[in-house]
């Protein structure tokens, strides 16, 4: 999909603004553009947004290279590389991820350095400043949650004497993230139907709901490992409920339609609150595509009309088993599930031959990632290795499950059931006009606090598999290494083989954080390395 701004693809503009590999050179000075008009700032904002779709962020590195191997998903290449936690400080994907995020910070700082001093009307100034503040905060959130203590740059004009910038303690970084997001929340527009002068009607632009929902995510992280500030559960609940109580969002009754819309270039901001914009098919100038769908993941096929996919990303047998079986099912060898998400997320078929013939896949350990299906794409011709399908950063289902998790941690499950059960009812098809199993009971009830906590973990796996959240969830829940190691024993006792647990074999305590890139340490002598690297 194309970002509905008039300022797509501003690489040339940013490139003339001394944005050459932000942390690759020791800065002597940065040239800040003299932006004057709304259009000038919109062009600059496009540069800040553009980082999201970069190959080194959501376009490939984040969902695939750094997050593809957990207890619920894996890549079947068998390669000994970063996808299975084999990396060090010189790893290209780790370095490129760091560079991309800091480039986003730099581009946001270019705007924030000058926007307050312009003659723009207050409405335009607020919208521009709010988006820049939030995006800078989001990039810093991704940096601090993956690298730990990091250097902070709050201006695009560091002094010539500030070439060696030490790492700021992560708590201070989180405090900055929160402060920027809280300010941004008051400045950006609401989604369509809200009360601001202008409203947002598509998920590619930051809205107030996006800020509020990501604030809930940040506070949940602060409440978990490593800060373990449990007081932040109250803040997480507050901001999740701000989204819910706005009345501007709801679940799409059909889980599959959420992802079909990404393929068809359709927006549903009620469900998909914030998403990464991808567009094009490698032909022409206007394009920013993802390798995660196509070259990496999807339903395996060589049929170009359907949309080629390597089918390299599979769900694990553990994920398959998390979906409740229909005890009355007579299908063999695998029973049907009451949970309609299972056979969508874990494709029960592949395509064989050209043209592709749909062929059943009854191996619960080797089902392809079916969440994004290239057969629904409307861009033509379809590229052989990339896809224009958007990627969700924040969905309304996440808001509900964050509210449920925070409520349980604060007060136990009594008032948390409505949030998780709403997600489960959609999953079981009970929100559809004609539910396939109208008498099924999808609701949870009568759980202890610990049991509900486990139910949240399992529900997040079922709902958000392949959306690059499982590793970060396991880390913030505080037992990433232990969970990954326990998975080895479970997998090998339940039909799995060594190829399914490569990532778990390689995980150690050091993998809770990524290494600080060697190249940047050679430039910034004040940097120190994370433990284990």
Automatic annotation (TrEMBL):
Residues 271-533 form the RagB/SusD domain. It is found in: Cell outer membrane. InterPro entries: SusD-like_N, SusD_RagB_dom, TPR-like_helical_dom_sf. Pfam families: SusD-like_3 (PF14322), SusD_RagB (PF07980). PROSITE patterns: PROKAR_LIPOPROTEIN. Belongs to the SusD family. Keywords: Cell outer membrane, Membrane, Signal. The keyword Membrane applies. This is RagB/SusD family nutrient uptake outer membrane protein. Residues 22-220 form the SusD-like N-terminal domain. It comes from the Bacteria.
């Amino acid at each position: 999909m194309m970002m509905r701004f008039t300022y797509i693809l501003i690489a040339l503009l940013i490139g003339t603004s001394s944005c050459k590999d932000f942390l690759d050179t020791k800065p002597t000075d940065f040239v800040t553009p003299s932006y004057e008009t709304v259009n000038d700032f919109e062009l600059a904002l496009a540069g800040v947004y553009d980082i999201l779709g970069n190959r080194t962020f959501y376009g490939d590195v984040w969902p695939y290279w750094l997050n593809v191997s957990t207890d619920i998903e894996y890549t079947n290449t068998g390669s000994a590389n970063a996808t299975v936690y084999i990396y060090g400080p010189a790893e290209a994907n780790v370095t490129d991820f760091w560079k991309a995020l800091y480039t986003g910070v730099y581009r946001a700082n270019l705007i924030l350095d000058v926007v307050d001093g312009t003659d723009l009307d207050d409405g335009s100034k607020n919208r521009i400043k709010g988006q820049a503040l939030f995006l800078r905060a989001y990039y810093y959130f991704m940096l601090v949650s993956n690298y730990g203590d990091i250097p902070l740059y709050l201006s695009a004009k560091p002094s010539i004497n500030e070439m060696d910038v030490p790492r700021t303690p992560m708590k201070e970084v989180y405090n900055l993230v929160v402060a920027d997001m809280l300010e941004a929340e008051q400045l950006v527009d609401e989604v369509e139907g809200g009360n601001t002068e202008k409203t947002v009607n598509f998920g590619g632009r930051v809205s107030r709901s996006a800020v509020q929902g990501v604030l809930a995510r940040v506070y949940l992280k602060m409440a978990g490992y490593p800060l373990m500030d449990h007081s932040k559960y109250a803040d997480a609940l507050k901001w999740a409920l701000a989204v819910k109580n706005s009345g501007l969002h709801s679940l799409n009754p059909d889980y599959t339609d959420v992802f079909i819309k990404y393929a068809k270039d359709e927006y549903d901001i009620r469900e998909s609150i914030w998403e990464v914009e991808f567009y094009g098919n490698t032909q022409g100038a206007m394009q920013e595509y993802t390798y995660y769908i196509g070259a990496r993941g999807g339903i395996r096929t060589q049929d170009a009309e359907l949309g080629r996919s390597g089918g390299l990303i599979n769900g694990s047998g553990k994920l398959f088993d998390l979906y409740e079986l229909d005890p009355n099912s007579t299908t063999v060898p695998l029973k049907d599930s009451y949970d309609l998400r299972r056979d969508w997320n874990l494709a029960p078929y592949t395509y064989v031959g050209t043209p592709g013939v749909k062929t059943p896949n009854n191996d619960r350990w080797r089902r392809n990632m079916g969440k994004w299906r290239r057969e629904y794409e409307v861009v033509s011709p379809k590229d052989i290795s990339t896809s224009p399908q958007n990627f969700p950063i924040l969905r309304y289902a996440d808001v509900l499950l964050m509210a449920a998790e925070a409520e349980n941690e604060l007060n136990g499950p009594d008032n948390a059931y409505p949030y998780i059960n709403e997600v489960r009812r959609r999953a079981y098809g009970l929100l559809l006009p004609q539910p396939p199993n109208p008498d099924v009971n999808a609701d949870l009830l009568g759980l202890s606090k610990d049991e509900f906590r486990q139910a949240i973990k399992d529900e997040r796996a079922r709902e958000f598999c392949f959306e690059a959240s499982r590793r970060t969830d396991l880390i913030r829940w505080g037992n990433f290494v232990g969970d990954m190691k326990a998975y080895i024993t479970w997998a090998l006792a339940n039909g799995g083989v060594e190829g399914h647990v490569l990532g778990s074999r390689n995980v150690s305590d050091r993998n809770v954080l990524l290494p600080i890139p060697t190249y940047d340490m050679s430039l910034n002598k004040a940097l120190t390395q994370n433990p284990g690297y």
